[in-house]
Design brief:
The complex is a heterodimer. Chain A is mainly beta. Chain A has eleven helices and 70 strands. The chains are: A mainly beta, B mainly alpha.
């Protein structure tokens, strides 16, 4: 369902009957109005496309006791206009008002436009909005007086209202209450009205801007007349009110009329058959439709648009014709969802073929209204009409709503008019032979899980027979051409939706997932002679075809693999965080990180992936898989240095040919990122002196340099050798020519046949203290050196570059015979891989933000390639995150309103909301799509912050996962022979178009306890506060980082810490009171210490890698675990005893050193307490 | 005082006053008593579902004698129910002060609201 917003504000007085209109010159602006039980009509205004609303009132005019019957519109000068009936004890008149202030809070009386008439009712207002109309900005008002229908016009804002002219004639008897007036793009004016006495509907046309109207033409005969009582509105009854529309082009001259009437047939074809309050009546009301294809001269036989078999009533239809497309949109109340036939929802139907066919109804309201229950305004109930406006693909409707059970309010929604479409979304569009061969030898075989999706838009779940993720078998079959070696005509294996509940009557985007099976042999690759083969993917669903293509590649050269289905988590990349003295792959970390690298890569290569009893492919855990900006780690009571490394495994297979000069370039991105595509001239830049071709006498291969985009460093190369001193003297940009990296520049020998693995490695020196990089690239010297004489201030890598707790790592196999093409993504190439995973801890038990997972990230939307292209989107898979939670996406370069407006235009439904100017709210569950407008990034990546609130019920040990992908457009000429297939929405006859994933990252959210997390969070806060001091105001990261720190500070509070005491510090510990670098804790006298106690049972004894006792784990009474550190053998003995005997134990600690036991108190509850105290 | 046109199909004056919770001595009471000439109405109006009291219909017809009262809507504007609601809530029938004066307004002031100084509506007389 569409997001419902309250236009009228919370009300205690009753509201009913509403009208609304876009400012056609600025679709961000809407004006609306409604009846009010106060003296004057209430007016609404939205400056942001209907997201937020302000309220005001029309002024009172002498002689009026009340106002009613709101009508609104805009002229192109930005003046908002309103009509109302001025109701007095001696008669009614039609009043016009206008508003010209910027925020449309001030309404002034314009004129009484009904002349001498005093028995008027139901004024309708319409402005000729069409820029090409000769009567543009003419205002037309239509109403009823004493029986006949009248029209008054005004020639634009500067004109004057002309005297009313009667447009109905003698054909109209007994009143004509409930008319409409509209124009087409040629300026023709159409006045519609009912003749209550003769039960007919009429239209009269003016071709001279309303100067005069032609003879009325009969549209239809109705079953009932005037008012129809029905159970949902038996008191006020429902008026047979015409809603009209017109659309004219050089080849079309359409006029439309829509109205409510009895359903017809025996027992339901006269006013006396109306159901009244009888909910069991077999007579019901329906929405009727008729059209003219000749400018209103002749009309089609009326039809019922949605004639359900059930006993329900439809009423208050409002029709809109989009002047830019001719599309029709219709809203109305329907009681179909209430077996009691009294509660209503607002439903939408639309037509994109001039009313020949209509979409299935979809529900707009998110809650029902009952105007028959206690508290309702029994006299007015819903009033006589609801509002609707639409232009250029955007639509907004408003209605009387009493979902809160109190007074009637006016609610509204930006409503989707989503084109039905079937579109391929490619998770991957290139597959390498090496990779598939490697996968074939693994469990599961050569099957690429969820290789692509087919997205289906514009349908409800009911229409497609989908009831949940298990309905995937209802999806379309996909075939391949050529299909050699592939399992062909495949069915989907998964299904999800933008609405995880699969609400049956809601428009939503469905996404069917498909696995690609390359079969038991290599024939998919051996069947073609060239280096690549294009495979066409074809499907058809609901009579709509779609097509896409993928590429198969033969590349018998060194390669690096992606994850089988999670290509952003390459299986050939490992990240290592290791403290001095710790051991990985059998190598103990000493003081020389490069020696460690050399030893580890040599050991792994010698063992072909096995070293020190560890396998390169062993499952990784979050504590060591992440790299850290903290330079210190606690080991027992000491703080020791900690180092970050990346390892990469390159595969090579050749009988006799070596592969020379195979280099591995490691790069870090500032945070998690979807902007990882390869561009050797910018984001993945190389030393320009050696790239693309090194001088023959240079004697060195090219080296990567910091990537730059939008005047910012966006990637950072790291090496297996020490960085060159950036302050040494030298000409601009010459620093890379001095940089050595022999560990990552290798000649790979022939393997003699079998595949062999080669290991590369890099020191990720982001936590080192040496200043080596400017905050932003100096003009003309992005690569250095920057000697003191240059005046360039250098900072540490963390200050200058790191902008989050996690960074994306890219690994690029630089092999000159097979270069990586521009735009390549890790899934496109077997030379390019990434490790893009973040671990964001949350606390249990925790309060509020301590359960918020936080992740900074970068995205960079691509430019639209054509007029039919939709913007890039973030596609967020919430996987196992509990549905219904709130996530927020803060993107300072993006206007949240633009995002919401685009989302409303693109999707049948969404769960996005406006949080603030640059923050989009998103309800978790299933899958979410978030449009990514071009924004104001000036070419740089957009910096962002994602926060995900998890519910109170999460438990320690649980792990939640979120996958964020960026979708973008792709297209190609059809391969010969050109299959005659296009995507129905985005496609043209010339190109096939599809969507593909541009980049992705994953966030893992482990649940731990606040006790275990607090110190980590405090250290992070201290280091990040230090980094924040270096980020200039105006930097793309400034606002994101500021908010990030605010959230972390709150997390610290909610984990039991005090962020106000945490100071900026490059190592974290230095900013936390009580911590001293490499020293034992605060030696205060014991009696001065503030003590804390923790009681529970010891659940584990901890030993370090040498087998030495390192502390124990206490399982607290609330189920949380708490880690205590000690190297004392007596503590070990006591802890082991308490552990074996399951004795309740109280650990007393110093408040400022809560991990070190001061006392252990052992309590045996079944007998007299027995205590053992120990320090 | 209006002519006595009461017939069995129309409610008694007491019932009319009670149905509208009329305050004794108010301008509204005077207006109701002045508009009892129900012969101006069609008999079927006694049973239609417009929710408009007969005295208000008579009053409106006198104001607008040229209107077409033959149709199912009986010729009354829908907003007449709003006027009725206002009358019941404001039985002195004095039009409140306005923000704007429209010199072109075609309506004459109501005699009831301007000539009668009835008691103000007490809270317990609310609609």
């Amino acid at each position: 369902m569409a997001n419902n917003v309250r236009l009228s504000g919370a009300q205690t007085g009753h509201r009913s009957e509403s009208d609304i209109r876009f400012n056609y010159s600025n679709l961000q602006q809407l004006v609306g109005g409604c009846n009010s039980t106060t003296a004057t009509n209430e007016q609404f205004y939205s400056p942001d496309g209907g997201v937020t609303w302000t309220q005001s009132n029309l002024p009172t005019v002498t002689g009026d006791n009340r106002q009613g019957d709101p009508a609104v519109d805009w002229t192109s000068d930005g003046t908002a206009w309103a009509l109302a009936v001025g109701i007095g004890t001696t008669g009614n008149v039609v009043r016009a008002f206008k508003s010209t202030d910027i925020i449309h809070q001030v309404w002034t009386f314009d004129a009484t436009i009904s002349g001498t008439q005093t028995n008027v009712d139901k004024p309708i207002l319409w402005v000729d909005h069409c820029p090409t109309s000769p009567y543009r900005d003419n205002l037309y008002a239509l109403w009823w007086n004493n029986g006949p229908t009248y029209v008054a016009r005004r020639a634009g804002p500067s004109g004057a209202w002309q005297a009313p002219q009667q447009v109905s004639g003698s054909e109209t008897t007994g009143g004509s209450d409930g008319g409409d007036i509209k124009t087409n793009t040629f300026g023709d004016v159409f006045a519609f009205w009912p003749s209550e006495g003769t039960k007919k509907l009429y239209v009269a046309k003016s071709t001279n801007g309303g100067a005069n109207f032609g003879t009325p033409v009969e549209i239809a005969t109705t079953n009932a007349s005037f008012l129809v009582p029905l159970p949902a509105q038996a008191n006020r009854q429902v008026l047979i009110y015409i809603s009209g529309g017109a659309y004219r082009t050089s080849t079309k001259d359409m006029v439309y009329a829509i109205w409510m009437d009895l359903a017809g047939g025996s027992g339901c074809n006269s006013s006396g058959n109306a159901p009244g309050t009888n909910v069991a009546s077999t007579c019901k009301t329906r929405i009727w439709f008729s059209r003219s294809i000749d400018g209103g001269a002749h009309w089609s036989t009326p039809t019922k648009i949605n004639d359900q078999s059930s006993l329900n009533d439809q009423f208050h239809p409002r029709l809109v014709v989009d002047e830019t497309s001719g599309d029709l949109a219709l809203v109305y109340y329907d009681t179909v969802s209430d077996p009691g036939r009294k509660k209503t929802d607002v439903w939408l139907q639309y037509s994109t073929d001039d009313g020949a066919t209509w979409s299935a109804p979809s529900k707009i309201t998110t809650a029902q209204t009952d105007e028959t229950s206690a508290g309702a305004d029994a006299g007015n109930q819903y009033g006589d009409y609801i509002g609707m406006t639409g232009y250029a693909g955007q639509y907004f409707t408003c209605w009387t709503d009493r979902r809160n059970g109190g007074a009637e309010e006016i609610w509204g929604a930006s409503i989707p008019l989503v084109q039905r479409a079937v579109t391929f979304q490619l998770h991957r569009d290139h597959f390498g032979q090496d990779e598939i061969d490697a996968a074939r030898s693994q469990p599961g075989g050569a099957v690429i899980k969820t290789a692509f999706w087919v997205a289906v838009d514009g349908f409800t779940a009911r229409e497609l027979g989908l009831t949940g993720p298990g309905s995937f078998a209802a999806g379309p079959t996909v075939s391949f051409l050529p299909s050699t070696g592939l399992v062909n005509n495949i069915a989907p294996t998964s299904l999800d939706s933008t609405d995880p509940t699969f609400a049956p009557d809601q428009l939503q985007r469905f996404r069917f997932g498909y696995d690609m099976n390359f079969g038991p042999d290599d024939s998919a690759f051996t069947s073609f002679s060239g280096s690549t083969e294009t495979v066409i993917l074809t499907t058809s669903f609901q009579s709509m075809p779609a097509q896409s293509q993928v590429t198969l590649m033969k590349q018998p050269d060194p390669f690096i693999l992606q994850g089988a289905s999670t290509w952003w988590l390459s299986s050939d990349i490992r990240l290592i965080q290791i403290a001095q003295g710790d051991t990985q792959f059998g190598v103990t970390m000493g003081a020389d990180p490069f020696q460690f690298l050399r030893d580890v890569t040599a050991a792994l290569e010698a063992g072909q992936g096995i070293a020190g009893g560890q396998s390169f492919d062993d499952g990784t855990d979050e504590d060591t898989e992440v790299i850290t900006v903290a330079p210190l780690a606690r080991r027992g009571l000491s703080l020791v240095s900690v180092y970050n490394f990346a390892l990469a495994r390159v595969h090579y297979q050749a009988a006799s040919q070596p592969a020379n000069n195979v280099r591995l370039f490691f790069r870090l991105l500032a945070a998690s990122s979807t902007a990882s595509d390869f561009h050797a001239d910018s984001t993945y830049s190389r030393d320009p002196a050696t790239y693309p071709v090194a001088p023959s006498n240079f004697g060195q291969h090219t080296i990567p340099t910091p990537g730059v985009a939008g005047g910012q460093y966006v990637t950072l190369p790291c090496f297996g050798a020490a960085r060159q001193d950036p302050t040494q003297s030298g000409v601009a940009n010459s620093l890379p020519q001095l940089q050595q990296d022999p560990l990552n520049d290798r000649n790979l020998p022939a393997t003699g046949g079998p595949l062999k693995d080669f290991y590369y490695g890099s020191f990720l020196d982001i936590n080192q203290s040496a200043p080596v990089l400017p905050q932003s690239p100096p003009a003309g010297n992005a690569n250095g050196p920057w000697p003191p004489s240059s005046g360039v201030a250098l900072e540490t890598l963390s200050q200058a570059f790191i902008r989050g707790a996690h960074q994306c790592l890219m690994a690029e196999v630089a092999f000159d015979p097979d270069p990586i093409a521009a735009g390549t993504q890790p899934f496109n190439s077997d030379k390019f891989a990434q490790r893009n995973i973040a671990w964001s801890y949350v606390a249990n038990p925790g309060v509020n933000l301590s359960r918020n997972a936080l992740e900074t990230f970068e995205v960079r939307p691509t430019d639209s390639k054509g007029p039919g292209d939709t913007p890039d989107e973030l596609m967020i898979d919430w996987t196992n995150v509990p549905a219904g939670q709130i996530a927020e996406i803060f993107l300072p370069a993006v206007n949240a309103q633009d995002v919401l407006i685009t989302a409303s235009r693109l999707y049948g439904s969404h769960r996005l909301s406006f949080v603030d100017t640059n923050t989009i709210g998103c309800v978790t569950g299933g899958i979410s799509f978030i449009p990514l407008p071009a924004g104001t990034g000036n070419g740089a990546n957009f910096a962002g912050l994602l926060s995900i609130a998890l519910p109170p019920g999460i438990k320690k040990g649980e792990l939640y996962t979120v996958i964020v992908r960026q979708l973008t457009n792709d297209s190609a000429e059809p391969s010969p022979p050109p299959p005659k297939l296009t995507s129905p929405v985005e496609g043209t006859r010339d190109l096939i178009r599809w969507r593909k994933v541009r980049g992705a990252f994953q966030i893992n959210i482990p649940v731990s306890t606040k006790e275990l997390l607090l110190e980590r969070e405090e250290i992070l806060l201290s280091i990040f506060r230090w980094i924040a001091l270096s980020i200039p105001i105006g930097d793309r990261w400034y606002r994101v980082f500021k908010r990030y720190l605010e959230f972390i500070a709150i997390r610290v509070v909610e984990m039991g810490g005090d962020p106000s005491r945490i100071l900026p510090s490059p190592d974290g510990y230095g900013g936390i009171p009580g911590h001293k670098h490499h020293q034992h804790p605060n030696p205060k006298c014991e009696h001065e210490r503030e003590r804390r106690e923790f009681t529970g049972k010891i659940s584990g004894i901890v030993y370090d890698h040498f087998g030495d006792f390192d502390g124990f784990i206490l399982e607290l009474r609330d189920g949380d675990d708490r880690r205590f550190y000690s190297r004392e053998s007596e503590i070990e003995n006591i802890a082991r005893f308490a552990w074996v005997e399951r004795i309740v134990t109280t650990v007393v600690v110093d408040h400022e050193n809560r991990e070190r036991p001061l006392h252990l108190i052992l309590t045996r509850s079944s007998s007299a307490p027995r205590r053992n105290n120990s320090e | 005082m209006a002519h006595s046109t009461q017939s069995s199909i129309w409610p008694s004056i007491d019932n009319q006053l009670a149905a509208s919770e009329v305050i004794h001595g108010s301008a509204l009471e005077t207006l109701i008593r002045d508009n009892q000439d129900f012969h101006k109405l069609r008999e079927e109006e006694a049973h239609d579902q417009l929710g408009l009291p007969p005295w208000l219909r008579v009053y409106w017809r006198k104001l607008h004698p040229d209107a077409d009262y033959s149709g199912p809507g009986a010729g009354y504007p829908g907003s007449l129910s709003d006027l009725y609601e206002w009358m019941v809530d404001n039985q002195h029938l004095r039009t409140p002060p306005a923000d704007v004066r429209d010199p072109a307004d075609p309506r004459a002031p109501s005699a009831y609201g301007h000539s009668h100084k009835g008691p103000s509506k007490g809270g317990h007389y609310g609609k």
